Amino acid sequence: MSTQDGPILIIGTERSGSNLLRLMLDAHSRIAVPHPPHFMRYLSGIPYNGDVDAMVGDAMWLLRNHIHPWPHVIDRAAVTEAAVSGKAPSLFGVVSAIYDQYRVAEGAARWGCKSTFMVEHVDEVLAELPDARFLWLVRDPRDVVASAKRAVFGYCHPYRMALRWTAEQELARAALERWGPRVVHLVRYEDLVSAPDREIRAICEFIGETVEPAMLAHHLSDNARVTASLSASWRTAGDPITTARIGAHRHGLSDRERRQVESVTARAMETLHYPFDEASLDEPAPAPLGVALRGFAVRLAVEARSLCTDRNHFRRWRRDATVRWLRRRATPGRTLAMAGESR
User: Half-sphere exposure (CA, 13 Å, Cβ side) for 151?
Assistant: First the structure.
């Protein structure tokens, strides 16, 4: 596989515009980027000990219960064959084989992955596929948190989501420092929607592709229409590029929530050139019990709304149950909490 045909992975934090960037890339004739089942997110903690059949079997279970069904059938035997050829078998090798089948079915030259949680697995990806390239998508954490409060994916409590954002930006920055700008490219959501022509040119230059007009009209694609129809949390996938959601925290967060977010994210915000109120640094951390109770209450409200609006609500419940079952089966006698909600 040449450098130009290497996979493209979007990393960072959910609710940062990753569906927008995914659909812009997917609109390119040479790139196929399906909605991710988050294989590494949900399966990487399971001790497979090199058991390829177990890795492939669990990945296929997850794919069958994906909240955004793929339009192509993946051949399990072919995945197993690809996973055992060449390098020592690994979970990401299985994931790569699955995505490669999707790429072939789409008639594309390369595949992409929008599972932002792959920020935790950059080294593993590059060990398997040295030609992989990473788009570090970053958005104002206050807007990320405001979006997460209304979404069925991610932490509903602002403080917990702020902690996640901070940890994942630190991982992305470490990856950039380790591998350099030829492997990791920083994309600011605010720049992407404010100057899409310029940013898409920069992205295409980074990944070695020619800009195609369809990338700036992603919302007209069938993939965008399907994504927007499945969940209220994805409804903007069918909208044209807009700056309307920059500064969403101004009406989506209370003053106290904003201060709590800034108190956690201030250092990373400063590094990434997001202005914040220095007085927020003195904001005390909320009590853990209060965070748990408030998060639970908000989650109930979000779930109730999802039940009324989302076509994939029960698929998400089934997916979550599948993940719990896979993990408990792997560690009998011990209950493992899910690693966290996902898109």
Answer: 22
